Each structure stands twice: as C-alpha cells, then as structure tokens.
Amino acid sequence: MATKVKTIRSAHSRPGEKVKVLITRDRIHRRILEIAKQIRQDFPDEPLLLVGVLKGAVFFLSDLARGIPGEVSLDFIAVSSYGKDTKTSGQVRLTKDLDASIEGRTVIVVEDILDTGMTLQYLLRILEQRKPKRLRVAVLLDKPERRLAAVQADYVGFSIPNEFVVGFGLDYAERYRNLQGVGVLSLKAHDKAGKSEN
Ligand code: IMP
Ligand code: MG
C-alpha cells in the first residue's frame, strides 16, 4: 500500500528540525482502544492501577485509562538518566515516587517507548520489591532493535524502526510532546544525543 509522507506543520518545529508523520492520531487512538479492551479481558474482575512514567506517558495513559471499563486508578512515577549520554550510560534514578503502596495490587506500568529497556528494567526491579499482586507493562511504542536490557512489554501499541520519534508525549528537548501523532524527527545542524527527557 502506498503511503503519503506528510510533514507536520512547521509551527511546531525550529529551523533545522523536520518531523515526518509516522503514526497518525487516528491510528494511535484506535490501537489504544484495542489495548484497553485487551487489558480488561486479561483481568476481568480486578481493580487496576495504572502507573504512568512521567512525562512521556501522560497522553497514552489518559487515553488508555478512559478506554478500560471498570475500576481503574492512577499513580505516577518519574525517572531520569544519569550523565549526558543517557542512552548508553543506562544509569537510572527515581525523581518522583508513587503516592501509594502497590502491595497486593494489579499494576500496569505505562510507558511511552521501550528503547534500550534500561528505564523499564530499573522500574520493574523496584516495583517488584513492593510485592504487587501482578506487574505488567504497556508501552505505546517499541524499538526492538535498540534493546540492551532483557525486558519485554506485555502490551505494545506499535513496533517502530530505529528512528528518533516525537509527539503524543515524546519529546525532543522538552518540545513536540503536544503533536497529535507520532513523527520521525530529523535534525540538520546538531546531534540529538542526550536531548530527550523522560
Ligand atoms: P530506554 O532507553 O528504554 O531506557 O528509554 C528511556 C526513555 O528515553 C524513554 O522512556 C523515552 O522517554 C526516551 N526515548 C527513547 N527513545 C526515544 C525517542 O525516539 N524519542 C523520544 N524519546 C525517546
Ligand atoms: Mg519516557
């Protein structure tokens, strides 16, 4: 099927930056509803606690939470990576903890993207120690080629190629989170290593 590549409105971009649509808002929305349904089918009678990883996961989390019927609660956690070269150092630290205990709860960690897997590996380790009844992972995007840590998501919106993406929560230097869809960012002038925040 031939697909037309659209460039997202230049209003979002700065000179030297270009964003090409990879996944439209409509496709994302449809896929999130499928995942939401799947989650409720997997846990038909259980109250669910969705743990969003700030900040990238907030848009995914808000659509996902509204798509899951029944009892759903939310909590948030934030992490950041040490050093400048965040993608290779693999050192993660907690910058905001959950508000409440997860002991005995059915918890679904909601992340924007599974890249090297270092962030999720760290999060799952600390959350597992708190004795949830079950611990699952939902990610909007997965870049399997980039994986360094042996982690997998239970629910994946889209598997994408090894490209730097922005939009629907994902940022470049804190910008582009508010794009409706997900797009590939290309830069003319400078290197993007270490520019993305969680
Ligand atoms: P990790 O490499 O799996 O630990 O991913 C760490 C974090 O880096 C993700 O949660 C995102 O916040 C960010 N990240 C990874 N890949 C991208 C990307 O392509 N665009 C924007 N942020 C990204
Ligand atoms: Mg993130």
Output the structural class: alpha/beta
Proportion in helices: 10-25%
Q: Radius of gyration, Cα only, in angstroms? A: 17 Å
User: How many beta-strand segments?
Assistant: 9
Task: Describe the largest sheet.
Answer: 6 strands, mixed
> What is the strand arrangement across the widest sheet?
4-3-2-5-6-7
Q: Give the CA-based shape.
A: globular
Give the H and E element order: EHEHEHEEHEEEE
Uncertain spans: none
Number of helical stretches of at least 4 residues: 4
Mean pLDDT: 91
> How much strand content do the residues show?
25-35%
**In angstroms, what separates the terminal alpha carbons?**
34 Å
What ions, cofactors and ligands are bound?
inosinic acid, magnesium ion
Task: Summarize this structure as a short list of keywords or feature phrases.
binds inosinic acid; alpha/beta; 3-stranded antiparallel beta sheet; 6-stranded mixed beta sheet
Compose a concise summary of this entry.
The protein is an alpha/beta fold and 198 residues long. 22% of the residues lie in helices and 30% in strands.
Protein topology:
Layout: E1 17-23, H1 25-42, E2 48-54, H2 58-67, E3 72-81, H3 86-89, E4 92-96, E5 106-114, H4 118-128, E6 134-142, E7 155-159, E8 165-166, E9 182-187
Parallel strand pairs: 2-3, 2-5, 5-6, 6-7
Antiparallel strand pairs: 1-9, 3-4, 8-9
Helix pairs in contact: 1-2
Protein model, in words:
The protein is α/β, with parallel strands linked by helices and 198 residues long. Helices cover 22% and strands 30% of the residues. It has four helices and nine strands. The protein has helices at 25-42, 58-67, 86-89, 118-128; strands at residues 17-23, 48-54, 72-81, 92-96, 106-114, 134-142, 155-159, 165-166, 182-187. A six-stranded mixed beta sheet has the order 4-3-2-5-6-7, sandwiched between helices. Helix 1 (25-42) packs across helix 2. The chain starts with 16 loop residues before the first strand and ends in an 11-residue tail after the last strand. The structure holds inosinic acid and magnesium ion.
